[in-house]
# Entry
Amino acid sequence: MTAKILLRLFLYSGLLLAVFSVIFFLMYTRPRRYVSPFTPADLGLSYETVEIKSFDGALLAGWFIPHKSSKKAVLALHGYPMDKGNILSMTAFLSADYNVLLTDHRAMGGSGGRLTSGGALEARDAEAAAAWLAGRGMEKIGLFGFSMGGNTALLADHPLVAARVCDSPYYSLRAMLDIIFAGLGPLRRPLIWTMSVWYRLAFGAGLSAADARHAAGPGADPLLLIHGSSDRTIPPSHSEELKKAFPHAGLWIVPGADHGQASGAAGGEYEKRVAGFFRANL
# Structure
């Protein structure tokens, strides 16, 4: 009798874990869409609304801000679960020297796609966007990524990409899940393991596919990592871990800045450093 009770308890616990893990998986891979109520025109910038087909046919919504004479471009990648407008104000200054393309990640903003993968598929989307820029005559491309966009910028690889700036990136999706579910105590690891099963079934690869430490592109490209010292969403230890993986990278820790606040906290120094980095490497 005791053995039957233990078996039922084990089976019921496993079933509950599977159900909750599916709920959490869908909750995070199908975020509520946010669409910014403004455009580059509100900042006095001329732009084109564009649609870019990715590797699997998903259509990516974008804003292309052309430069009159430059053949260089910066592809700007936003964070989870927002849209391209969320980083417009922090990247608009780049339009003074470069063509700028901002795109919505798949399953976010105005882009197609049903699920977000936390960086793995988004990197291939970024590669499609880089190919689109090449088709517009660009000769060199810089990647700027914030938060999940920073992870994506590290994972993306394209021959024209010559430099990367990553503001508040995470080094791996599994590490982020550890942070998100830290309050669950001993249930955290079984939940993450089960979610990783759904991830593999949905995307054809494990969570390691979104581990930026093993990306090939940044191994040779100039890389600038920026992180707020008081980031409570993605701790600065993530950029420090990436610095270990890519020793040639520059690392700037902005004192007192929380997640998404580095550009505001640093003021003009932020634009000066980012613009100077791209100017030296594009």
The beta strands are 48-53, 59-65, 72-77, 99-103, 140-146, 161-167, 223-228, 250-254. The first strand starts at residue 48 and ends at 53. The chain has a mean pLDDT of 94. The chain has one domain: 45-172+211-281.
